[in-house]
Predict the structure.
Amino acid sequence: MNISQELQQARARFLSRRWFLRDCGVGLAGIAARSLYAADSSSGAVAANPLAPRQPHFTGKAKRVIYIFQAGAPSHLELFDNKPELTKRNGQLPPAELLKGYRAAFINPNSALLGPKFAFAKHGQSGMEFSEVLPHTARIADDLCLIRTLNTEAVNHAPAQIMMNSGTQQFGRPSFGSWSLYGLGSESADLPGYVVLTSAKGTSGGSSNYGCGFLPTMYAGTPFRSTGDPMLYLSNPRGVDDETQRESLDALRRLNDLALQSVGDPEIAARIQSYEMAYRLQTSAPELMDLAKEPKDVLERYGIKDPKEANFARNCLLARRLIERGVRFVQLFHEAWDQHGNLTAGVRQNSLDTDQASAALVTDLKQRGLLNDTIVIWGGEFGRTPMVQGGNDGRDHHNRCFSLWLAGGGLKAGYTHGTTDELGFNVASDPVHVHDLHATLLHLLGFDHTRLTYRFQGRDYRLTDVHGNVVKELLA
């Protein structure tokens, strides 16, 4: 083949590509838009606002979620799962057959057993058992659904936290909150659909706990600061009034719209959405964060002494205010529960910091008629070992069983699910894997977890991956 023929063929290939992009661009943009909006192309509301409310697969019992993530792994043996036999065997070595194939994070598994540090008692008509360090939670026992048999493969904090929040130990997958927002949209025009509040230390899993992964960025959690402006630089700089800012944003939107029409990149739509949301937040955020109008008895119920002080209790009250304003998913992170040592004092202090406000949130939602269609979740990434670590006052990571409580939207109230063995080491009956929990929560929101998918790199992904079953016993 001579050079002339090669040039002619190259020119033909170039013309073919140019023709395809020119004449088929509308079709490509349509494909991109459908991937972005995941909705019927005839839906004008979704086309105008990709975060507009959407209908789930079927009518769900719940419309919104408040996820109180107690990072660091609260000890089920000191809080929720009473083990008198463990007290009797305190100081003894665990049975050899119990340790076969067991993977510990730090300790030698053949370490002495450690009895629970606190007394337990039954509460409410349900007779649900709680530790003495959770007096406020104990008072709402008949509103709670307590799972004692959660289990996971992960044994260290970062992968276990990401597993609890995204269904996988790998970075880069969408979080439960992002899937919820992607499926349901948001009912708030002036606040993000998924808000994150943090107290104590930051989480080991970082932003992957609330990230959107490969979903468009608009579905990611938006971290709010607990006091002052919820985000830095929210206020206009000197010399920029509202009219000037609005004109600037309108011009920027026109440019972004041109880019979106040209290349159909979902991230451009997310950028447009974020600019508009930031503008509206300048008005809505100060009103949200100002607790001065909350009645004194409400502040006292949550244990808030100074409405401006950033802490877990304030975040719980902000969570209620956020869902009242249409926010779909609110997630609280409180990492303080990693008691490898100082177990007794650490669990007691953490309970003082979180027990009252957690219970107050459930009670407050119930009194306002919001609990019926709101799911409240309280729990961490795994439990703690029945064996001691560090002298006689610490426990290592334990993934074979741990506890978590839920309340509200379609959940069976006053119900304790599953049992662990006499030492709190293994599940004895009715196990609930993390994937099963996610499948059940999506079901309560109105989704078949096998059908809530997003196509990425040639594969349909979902929160539960290829696993998970709805735990029907948890449903009211």
The longest strand covers residues 144-151. The chain has two domains: 1-37, 51-230+295-474. DSSP finds 14 helices and 17 strands in the chain. The CA atoms of residues 119 and 186 lie 43 Å apart.
